[in-house]
């Protein structure tokens, strides 16, 4: 089984958490809907089928993450990773990670969508910006050079800007 997309996603979520909250060597529980996991593995299976797909994941990732437990309640899956995972991500995070710069920027009072676009452009000349006409978000920005797979959606709430990032398939599922 190819677990690369799941591994990358878990690492990216831990990076985002550490950028927001700081590094702490701790056990972490990360949650995924079944639909996202099905996207990672290119199939459409139920929860029992996904548990079968994931049965070898703990041994696959053990060298990097230490002990990993996989569980689920209905279609909601939980990956509980040991302290070794947070340490691994911390030790392998680059100083100039985009997610760190983005979180720092949106965390600043008075941040604007234009500043966010400038940040994206400072990492690549190839970005796509699309206005969003819904109550959830104002604009979607993504890299078009393969450097970052996520679709970043932003909402200007007046006094601050919030964001959420989606993998392309999850973004499509929401029908934005």
Give your account of this protein's structure.
It holds the Pfam family DUF3877. This is DUF based on E. rectale Gene description. InterPro entries: DUF3877 (IPR024539). This protein is of the alpha+beta class. The protein has 2 domains: 4-92, Phenylalanyl-tRNA Synthetase, Chain B, domain 1 (2-Layer Sandwich); 98-174, no CATH class. It has 8 helices and 7 strands. The chain has a 4-stranded antiparallel beta sheet. A 3-stranded antiparallel beta sheet has the order 1-3-2. β4 and β5 form a beta hairpin. The chain starts with a helix and ends with a helix. The relative contact order is 0.13.
Helix content: 40-55%
Mean pLDDT across the residues is: 94
Can you name the CATH architecture of the largest domain? 2-Layer Sandwich
Structural class: alpha+beta
Q: First CA to last CA: what distance?
A: 31 Å
SSE topology:
Blueprint: H1 4-21, E1 28-33, H2 34-41, H3 47-54, H4 57-65, E2 68-73, E3 76-81, H5 83-92, H6 98-106, H7 113-123, E4 127-131, E5 139-143, E6 151-156, E7 161-166, H8 168-174
Antiparallel strand pairs: 1-3, 2-3, 4-5, 5-6, 6-7
Task: Briefly characterize the structure.
The protein is 45% helix and 23% strand.
Tags for this entry?
176 residues; alpha+beta; 8 helices; 7 strands; 45% helix; 2 domains; Phenylalanyl-tRNA Synthetase, Chain B, domain 1
């Amino acid at each position: 089984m190819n677990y690369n997309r799941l591994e990358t996603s878990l690492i990216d979520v831990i990076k985002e958490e550490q950028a927001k909250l700081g590094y702490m060597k701790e056990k972490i529980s990360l949650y995924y809907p079944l639909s996202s996991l099905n996207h990672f593995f290119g199939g459409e299976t139920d929860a029992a089928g996904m548990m079968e797909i994931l049965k070898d994941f703990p041994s696959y990732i053990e060298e990097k993450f230490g002990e990993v437990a996989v569980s689920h309640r209905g279609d909601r899956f939980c990956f509980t990773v040991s302290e070794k995972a947070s340490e691994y991500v911390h030790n392998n995070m680059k100083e100039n990670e985009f997610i760190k710069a983005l979180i720092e920027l949106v965390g600043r009072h008075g941040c604007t969508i234009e500043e966010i676009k400038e940040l994206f452009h400072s990492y690549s000349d190839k970005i796509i910006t699309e206005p969003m006409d819904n109550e959830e978000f104002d604009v979607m920005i993504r890299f078009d050079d393969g450097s970052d797979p996520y679709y970043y959606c932003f909402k200007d709430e007046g006094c601050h800007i919030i964001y959420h990032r989606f993998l392309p398939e999850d973004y499509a599922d929401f029908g934005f």
